[in-house]
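Q: I'm writing up a methods section and want to include an example of the input and output format. Could you take the sequence below and give the corresponding predicted structure tokens, formatted cleanly so I can copy it straight into the document?
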Amino acid sequence: MLGVVVPGLVVPGLVVPSLVVPGLVVPGVAWADPSGRCTLDDPRLAETSGLVVAPDGGYEVVNDGGNPSTVYRLDTSCAVIGQIEVPDRGRDVEDLTRDADGTLWLADIGDNDRERRTVAILRVSSGGDETITRLTYPDGPHDAESLLMPGDRRPVIVTKELGGRSGVYVADEPVGEGGTGTLRRAGEVVVPGEAMTTLGSGAHTGGAISADGRVVALRTYADAWLHPAPDGTATADDVVAALRATPLRVPLPGEVQGEALAFAPDGTLLSTGETPEDGPPAPLHAVPGATALVEGSASASSTPAPAVAPTSERAGLPEPLASIGVVLAVAVGVFALVAVVAVVRRAGLTPQRTTCRRAHGDVLPGVRAGAAPRPPCRARWRPRRGSARSRRCAASARRGRPCA
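A: Here is the clean output for your methods example:
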């Protein structure tokens, strides 16, 4: 059962551990002030969506959006020094992971229009051989950008949902040998309400597992969420279990469209993303010692509360969407009121309430004695003085007929 989320404490240079009591979840926040290592100046890297650390200490990245499935090799200054051409072009490659043996996994899981019948995991061996495994969701198409690859090679895919609740799907069988497979829904990961500060702060755009397998990370456009995995990530079930632990939040400022996340062997968290059109090149940020921050935070929490809710526990709208719905309802109400006032003014009426208290038979101003009595006032609006409607109403009153 999910607890109640209350705002965390953010103090520069201070890590606030997660606090968990029955029914209460307070995610820890690490204001780590990510430092810039370099910028992705090469125009070929403008749509970077996946990032891993290369064996030589450099980086490897891949683009999304239907670009050629090319893995670019970068040095430590983010300059392109080589590339790996993937034989088959993915439809929308959104993430990238690397095994210790050099195997690359490309997550062809993007589906903005939610129309794909299958998604694909591309395996590229260190020798350049490629195999493709196509996977099917159990409940229809989903857009996704986050891949977590455990030791048993059963990929864990986290969908991209703006409302802060993203589905977690697990492959039934290992991938890498080609063919087809199925995914099953393992639950959902939830971004706490106080972290929903921007439209993209609830959308998961990338994932990574630390080199020692003890930290599972997901990112949004605004933050990284680091989940402790004290039992490791040898299997997909271990990854799902880690996603149930209370995460540590690491804000990632300065990334307009941050979509890539990776860990260096020493536990440094790396992040980057796409370069906005006509904007400055995307920076590559680093948070040294990120895994150690998570271990310290996890030790302060004796009973982690689940961040992955079983499917059966979902009910109603998520809190962010409910809040957005209230705001939209108020906005629609205000717009309707403005429209009514505009129509009334165009009709020559003044938005001023009449008393409507005169009894039937009273002689009203401007009506000669002995004229037919005027019915009780029913209108909420009276004609604006000097308007055409006001003159028509005066003429009607003189003839003993009320102004409708």
